[in-house]
Specification:
Number of helices: 11
Structural class: alpha/beta
Number of domains: 1
Shape: globular
Order of helices and strands: HEEHHHEEEEHHEHEHHHH
Helix content: 40-55%
Number of strands: 8
CATH topology: Nucleotidyltransferase, domain 5
Largest sheet: 6 strands, mixed
Radius of gyration: 22 Å
CATH architecture: 2-Layer Sandwich
Oligomer: single chain
Amino acid sequence: MSSLTSNWNRLSAKLNSSKKQKQERHSVTHGKIKKTNKVPKNETSLHTEKVEKAIDNVIKEESLLFSILWANEGYITQKDLQNRTITLPSASNLNESRKTAPGKYLAVDCEFVGVGPEGAESSLARISVVNYYGYVIYDRFVKPSERVTDWRTWVSGVTPKHMKDAVTFREAQEEASKLFDNKIVVGHAVHHDLEALFLSHPKHAIRDTSKFSEFRKISKGKTPSLKKLADHFLNIKIQSGEHSSIDDARASMLLYRLYRKEIEQQFKLKRSN
C-alpha cells in the first residue's frame, strides 16, 4: 500500500498548493499588489471532488489486480476480468489460507534510483515479490550502495525517508535468491531485475511477459511497456503516477495467468527448436 500512500500524499499536496494559489491570486491597484477574495466555495468543492475521484481510481485499479488474482484458481479468463467487483481477503482468511505460501510461481519487480553524475546510473532501491495469487511474499526498500544523486521519486516512488528501514543490498539479494530457488520466476523484462540483483536463474524457469509474441503485436514486434499491456489486455491502468513494484509484479502475474496456456506452449516450442 506504499504506492497508495505516496499517491495520496502527492495528490493532497497538489490540492493544497492549488487551493493556496487560487486563494492568493494577486491584482495590481495603484502600483500595489493586493490579495483578491477567496475562491468561491463551489469551485473549491469541485476541485476537491476531482482529486478525491482521482484517488478513488488509484485505489480501485491497485485493488483490482489483487482481487482478480486472489479470487481465481488456475487459468484466468476474459470473463474473470470483466467482473470489476473488488473482493479482498480478510485478515483471518490471509492467516489461514494456503494462498499466502510462496508456491511454484513468483512474480518480481524492482524500482531504481539514480546514482553517479546527474543520476545517470541506476541502483536498486526496492524489490517486491508476489505469488501466484498476488499475495506479497517479499517487499523491501533497499539501501543503494552508492550516494543517490536522483531519487526519481516521480516514477520510482522512492524517497529518502524510505531508507530509514531499508535493508542492505546483500540482504535483499540473499532473500531473493532463497525465494527464487526451484521457482518459476515471472516478470516484465525480468532479466533487468535479475541483473540488478546480480542473480542468475535457469532460462527454463523464467516467464517474461515482454517476450510473448501475442503481447508484442500491439507494439509492432517491439518490446511493449507493462503499462501498455495492462491497459490493452487487462483494461487496468497502472503507473498513472509514481510506480509501485507490488502493482507491477501483480500486473505481470495477471498477464501471465491470463495467457498461461499460450505462453507455456510457445515456451515449449522454442525450447524444442
